[in-house]
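Quick entry, no commentary yet.
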Amino acid sequence: KKKNHTMFRVVRSFEESVQELFDPTKQEQFYTEFTCKTASVLQIQQLRGHLEKLPRIVKVGVENALADDVAKELFALVGSSEFVRTLVVRLQDEASFTHLTLALPHLESLFVQHMNLGDAGLKALLNALAPSSCLKMLALFHHVFSASGAADLAAFCRSHPSVTTLNLSNVPLGKQSVGALIQAMTTPTMQQLMVRECELDPETLVAIIQALAQSNLTFLCFASNEVDDRCGRLWPRWFIRGAAS
């Protein structure tokens, strides 16, 4: 019996990744993800045809920053696919988020990484996602935004109950964003919060841990932040799914 698992491997060129998908010697691995280093408009169009033959592919990602026309084509591919539900993307210009609405009909998980989004970029992203009713997970890696941006993000979570997972790893939120983090984590439908390496101090972490009682979280990760003895003492015994290191 074949095992269904997500593919984690070295990111290759578009041509190599396509060749790997159709390699009969690797079919037993039953890959569910297509990831490549970079892509052109033509290649994204070619990928659309490939995915029609590979309904097992549920996640698509491009590692390098995409130009506006390529981003638009990729978003349209996700929106039209019957099976793709997860998108990993990096854009050259935050203005390309205006095309993200093309992906919303089916998009359930979105990873936006290594763009160094500021408050304006974050707002552009959240505005593009506003019509979504099926987004379940939002992951923002390696960005920088202020407490105001964090507050916008918390408000988005509050107004989009479909979002159950928020991953802000490597976003230097700092103690000024504690109020927004607590607003996000205490959203009734929020289940998982990851704030790994977010420059949170012990006071902020204590406030977050104390807010667990008012949340419905089932998982909290605050690894690689500044932790002291209070975090261990205050950790609720009933909350068993978490990671502090």
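second:
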Amino acid sequence: MDAYSRHKDYMNNYVRYYGRGKDNIFESKHPVRTDMDVIRQHHKFIRTEADETGTWEATLAKKYYDKLFKEYCVADLSRYKEGKIGFRWRTQKEVIEGKGQFSCGNKRCDAVDDLRSYEVNFAYVEDGEKKNALVKVRLCPPCAYRLNYKQVKAAKRAAGREARERARDAKRLKTSRSHQKQAADAEEISSSSSESEDDVAKEKKLSAAILEELDRFAVQPNNDGSNTTADELSGLFL
């Protein structure tokens, strides 16, 4: 039992046996407010002159703030998939141990290899007001992935969309070229067929003219009195 608990026990016994019969003089309608409660209530991630109101609560919070080391932060990455990452300044004990500088800045990681420094635009809400602060944190590769989880996922989705769009464009181009080739082949076939029909028509017309001449000169008397046959005349036109 610590000194304060022992004191309360003594005082309760005194009042119960020698006082007015009250069972517990430390029962109060209002909870006990400790120094840590005051610090939690008045602490600021970055304090300014406007935060110095001169009250003892502000003075206590300022005294605690001045003991923090603000070169590197310690990060809470437990909810990184939700995009919710917490930062706080290092305490003297953590600075002495090298936490956040010579070991990973994730509060649940103690890796010491392949550490890298990152500058993060820390957006947070304090007293109902949105604020931003540029902070530095040193992390190992797995924790750095957690820190940039949202950006990595967004980049992967964008790369996937671009790959699908390129595939669709290539498919459209291939289909268009195929249609163009089919149209060109059909046009070539049509042109060849038209030329063939023209040649056949010309041959028919020539044959008809020859036959007409043969019919007109089917029998022609020669000077010697013989006749020229159609077969002999046809040789004249060939």
